[in-house]
Design a protein that fits this description.
CATH topology of the largest domain: Oxidized Rhodanese, domain 1
CATH class of the largest domain: Alpha Beta
Strand content: 15-25%
CATH superfamily of the largest domain: Rhodanese-like domain
Largest sheet: 5 strands, parallel
Number of domains: 2
Low-confidence stretches: 6-48
Structural class: alpha/beta
C-alpha cells in the first residue's frame, strides 16, 4: 500500500512538525503509468556502472503538511498563494490565501511557453503584496503541478523561501480545515529580486542537444507514454517522439490519490526503476511538453529524493519537437 510523505518529519519556519503517518491507498492510475523506457546510451550506462551513486540530500523543508500550515494561518510572514482558477478560489480557499495564476509566471517566445522575465514576476508578486522576505506557500488542485512550476520559477530568480503544500487543496478540504470566501486585502509591495538568476537549474535547447550521448547527463521525459512514443503529438510541436536516450516517467506517477507526494523511498524506487538514477558527476535534465510537468519532476528529484544536480529544459518538446533537423527517437510524426 502506497504511503504519502506526510509520514515524514517536515520543517517549516525553523519549527519541526512531526506529521501523522497515513495510508492513502494505491497510487493514482495516471497517463504514463507503465510507460516504456528508452534505453540509455551505451556511454551513459557504462559511466553509471563505474561511478559511485550520487549522495542524496533530501530537503523536505520545501514542503509543508496540511496540519503544519493550519497552525500557521495567522503568521504575518507567510503568504499563502492559491493557484487554482478564480471560480474555485471564490467558492472557497485557505483563509488569507491570495489568488495567483501560474500563467503569470510564463511568457511566450514565438510558439514556445517560457519562463517569464524576472521583472514580470517581480511585478506580479509586488501587486499581490508579497515581499522578498515573505515565506510563500503554494497550492493548487492538480497534484502540485502548478505549485512546483511556480516554485521553480522563484528558485530561478532567487526568492528566499517558498514551499509547496503537500496534498494540495484536495488534502486541505478532505481534512475539514478552515475555508474562507473572503479575499484578503494586502497593500502592494515593492518587489525586486536581489540575486542573479540561477542558470544552473535552467536548460537551453543548445545544452539539451549537447546532452544527447553525453554520459554526464541523464534526460528525464516526464510526459505520458503516448507522448513519449509519438502516438500523442501536441501542437505546436510538428514531430512526435522523444529526445534520443531520454528515459520516460510520467510526473503524475509520483503523486498518490490523496494528492500527496509518495514517500521518499517509494519515489526513489520509482525513478530508479525507470533508469533515472544519477551517479556522482551526473546531472539530470527534465523536460515535458512546455516545461510545467518537467518542473514537477525537477522538484521531486531535487528536493524529495535529493539529487543535487537537476535542471529543467524550459522550452521542452514545444521547442525541440518543432525545430527542423532535430534528431528524434520513436517519432510517428
Amino acid at each position: 500500500m502506497a504511503r504519502s510523505l506526510t509520514g515524514q518529519v517536515l520543517l517549516f519556519g525553523g519549527t519541526v512538525f512531526a506529521a501523522l503517518a497515513m495510508a492513502c491507498g494505491s497510487t493514482a492510475t495516471a497517463p504514463g503509468t507503465g510507460a516504456p523506457k528508452a534505453a540509455a546510451t551505451a556511454a551513459t550506462a557504462a559511466a553509471t556502472a563505474k561511478a559511485p551513486a550520487a549522495a542524496l540530500k533530501p530537503n523536505l523543508d520545501r514542503i509543508i503538511t496540511v496540519d503544519a500550515l493550519a497552525a500557521k494561518l495567522n503568521d504575518p510572514t507567510i503568504v499563502i498563494a492559491d493557484l487554482r482558477t478564480k471560480d474555485k478560489y471564490d467558492a472557497g480557499h485557505i483563509p488569507g490565501a491570495i489568488l495567483l495564476s501560474q500563467a503569470d509566471f510564463n511568457s511566450k517566445k514565438g510558439v514556445v511557453t517560457d519562463l517569464a522575465p524576472a521583472a514580470q514576476i517581480a511585478t506580479v508578486l509586488g501587486k499581490a503584496g508579497v515581499k522578498p522576505t515573505d515565506t510563500i506557500v503554494l497550492y493548487d488542485d492538480s497534484g502540485s503541478l502548478s505549485a512546483t512550476r511556480v516554485l521553480w520559477s522563484l528558485d530561478v530568480y532567487g526568492h528566499k523561501d517558498s514551499r509547496v503544500l503537500n496534498g494540495t487543496w484536495t488534502s486541505w478540504d478532505a481534512a475539514k480545515k478552515p475555508v474562507s470566501k473572503e479575499t484578503p486585502t494586502r497593500q502592494p509591495a515593492t518587489y525586486a529580486f536581489s540575486a542573479q538568476p540561477n542558470t544552473a537549474i535552467v536548460v537551453t535547447m543548445d545544452q539539451m542537444v549537447k546532452a544527447v550521448g553525453d554520459p554526464s547527463k541523464i534526460v528525464c521525459d516526464s510526459r505520458t507514454a503516448d507522448e513519449f512514443t509519438g502516438r500523442d503529438l501536441r501542437a505546436p510541436a510538428t514531430a512526435g517522439g522523444h529526445i534520443p536516450g531520454a528515459l520516460n516517467l510520467a510526473y503524475s506517477d509520483a503523486v498518490a490519490k490523496s494528492g500527496e507526494f509518495l514517500p521518499l523511498e517509494d519515489l526513489k524506487k520509482l525513478y530508479d526503476n525507470a533508469g533515472i538514477k544519477a551517479s556522482d558527476g551526473q546531472t539530470i535534465f527534465t523536460y515535458c511538453q512546455s516545461g510545467i510537468r518537467a518542473a514537477h519532476a525537477w522538484f521531486v528529484l531535487k528536493y524529495l529524493i535529493g539529487y543535487q544536480n537537476v535542471a529543467v529544459y524550459d522550452g521542452s518538446w514545444e521547442e525541440f519537437g518543432s525545430t527542423p533537423g532535430m534528431k528524434i527517437e520513436g517519432s510517428r510524426g
